[in-house]
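Protocol check, entry for the methods section draft. Step 1: assemble the input record (protein sequence plus ligand SMILES). Step 2: submit for complex structure prediction. Step 3: store the structure tokens unaltered in the notebook. Ligand used here: calcium ion. Step 1 record:
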Amino acid sequence: MVSKFYWKCIVGVFMFFFVFSMDGSMYRANGESNLIINPDFEKEVGWEDWGGFSYTSDFKHIYSGNKSAMINKGEGGAGNAIIDNVTPGQIYTLSGFGKVSGQGQEGILGIECLDQEGKKIVGGKFTITFTNDEYLEKTKTFTTVEGTAKLRVYLYIITVVQDGAAYFDELSLKK
Ligand SMILES: [Ca+2]
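Step 3, stored output:
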């Protein structure tokens, strides 16, 4: 009996590590790496300020970690590093946590399909709009349009209301 129990333990431990390593290899096989540089805004890199963009460390406006993105200017926002080696007809999923402050404020998390020269392609823009005053995760799945060679994720406010701002954290773009 003791020996049977002993072998059950050995098999149990073996199965544990087998399943554990399978899980790891499956994750890698899916190639699900986040294509956004600095998607959690913890480091101050990867984002180009298009106006009114800042990294905030105000705990009231952070979803996770120590910083999030804040935009508080109309026609302002920020663009992430351009993603190269993209082809048309590929399915990607964009997601992120966002919220707004100010009555009627809207905040946009978007992505643009760009051609080889980095120019925007008509019909190649996909957006997620946040109007909630507490952080919510939203997701958008899209297919890259004809002529796509690059992608660019961006944050944007079209018009800013009085005391308005949009906040973003924990973004993700995966193929
Ligand atoms: Ca963060």
